[in-house]
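step=predict obj=Condensin complex subunit 1 C-terminal domain-containing protein n=341
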Amino acid sequence: MAAAVQDPNRDSVAFGRQAVPQLFEQLQQRDASCRLRALTSLCDLVHEPERLYQIVTEGFIAQLQDLLKDEDPSVRTKTCELLHLLTSHSIGRLALLSSSLLPHLSDLLDDSSSSCRRNVHLVLNGLAQLPAGAQALLVLVPKLMLKLRQMEAEQEEEEALLLSTLSSCSRLDPLPALASDGVPVLGHTLSHCSPNICREATAVLMALSIPEDGKRQVCEEQVLHVLMGLLQNGDLQVQTNAAGVIMNTVIITTGKYLSLELNAVSVLLNLLSEEEGEDQRKKRKTLVIYCLRALTALAEAPEGRCLLQDQLPLLEKRSRDQDQDIRRAARTAIRVVTWTP
């Protein structure tokens, strides 16, 4: 019988629980190709729950610190890939958060290798899905905002991952991003031709528009007119996020009157009046609620209330919607529109 052919890109792996310690020993080799083969084998092994648990619980993660500073870009890239695979599981995310690797990992946001940077963003984005991870990454928000300013057109995947991480962090605490010129930087990003980038950027902006300072900046940085255009975008999630930012911003007086000048009432009403099938109705629920809440806030201004009094039939139709949340939002809008001093 012919002998099995050894894959030259992988190390031979010991049986059972000896495999992980053996491969981590190989990571100490001076030859970069040896380290790379060991990392490739570890990336294969980590798909087995028992081996992943062993790496996490027996202190092996800490041994990856030197590899994050390895002179070989392929080794740095593969190390970050291994961390990404580990952080695909909650136990791996918690282990990385309790380690000392985060500062070294963040240094690789400026790595010369695009593959390495991509893997770093995947790791950070995975961590940000946990509240504890988003909390730990808040200290990196100024650096992430700086990276966002420096993004090139060909770095679309990195940019989308970065924005997704910022969104998770900013939902937890929007102040670090606001303090790092988040609104004007994101306002510029809204003009990106990629729907994916627009989805992520508007999601971050929605989080930043919750504090009063964020609402004020949305007005001052002339972001509202861009958002009005995005309400007519063909991507439902972009429309929904843009409506969410407007809903937050029109709470303040400046936001109300700027939106009225930009014909917000007409644009929002058009979204409410679109014909919906059963499947589309479910998908558009959040958008409809955001539009109704934005119109309710606009009706608090006499000019907005005057415009909406002619649109009561549409609001009344929405007040009979099958969905109770939409009915409630529409009835609140009707009460404000029909209020008399």
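step=describe
Residues 156-172 form the longest helix (17 residues).
step=end
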